[in-house]
């Protein structure tokens, strides 16, 4: 069976931006939902979708780490702090 022209090599997936990942995922979902694919091709597309989903999640995680909160310090000056994940924030408030 010939490889599908729309499939994306994993090395290229690592270079995709979030919008590109979403666009490709949308195309994959649309093709699978049409229901007219052979089982092997549908499975291959599903696997591509899982990889793309992981890539998108990775991009979102990295973006969240880059987001900074601008807060006013005790002396009235503004300072930047990294956005903490929810689990870290709740455990930090419990130890106070």
Helix fraction by DSSP (H/I, runs of at least 4):
55-70%
Radius of gyration: 20 Å
Q: Whole-Å distance between the termini? A: 62 Å
Number of helices: 4
Please describe the structure with a list of short key phrases separated by commas or semicolons.
mainly alpha; 96 residues; two-stranded antiparallel ribbon; 4 helices; disordered N terminus
Describe, in plain words, how this protein is organized in 3D.
The protein has 96 residues and is mainly α. Helices cover 60% and strands 10% of the residues. The protein is built from four helices and two strands, in the order αααββα. It has a two-stranded antiparallel ribbon. Strand 1 and strand 2 (78-82) form a beta hairpin. Helix 2 (18-34) runs antiparallel to helix 3. The protein is rod-shaped and about 65 Å long. The termini are far apart. Residues 1-5 and 88-93 have low confidence and may be disordered.
Task: Annotate the secondary structure layout.
Elements: H1 10-13, H2 18-34, H3 39-66, E1 68-72, E2 78-82, H4 86-94
Antiparallel strand pairs: 1-2
């Amino acid at each position: 069976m010939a490889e599908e022209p729309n499939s994306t090599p994993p090395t290229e997936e690592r270079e995709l931006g979030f919008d590109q990942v979403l666009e490709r995922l949308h195309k994959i979902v649309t093709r699978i939902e049409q229901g007219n694919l052979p089982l092997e091709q549908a499975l291959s597309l599903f696997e591509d979708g899982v990889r793309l989903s992981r890539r998108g999640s990775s991009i979102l995680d990295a973006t969240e780490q880059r987001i900074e909160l601008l807060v006013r310090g005790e002396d009235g000056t503004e300072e930047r702090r990294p956005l903490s994940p929810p689990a870290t924030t709740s455990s930090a408030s419990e130890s106070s």
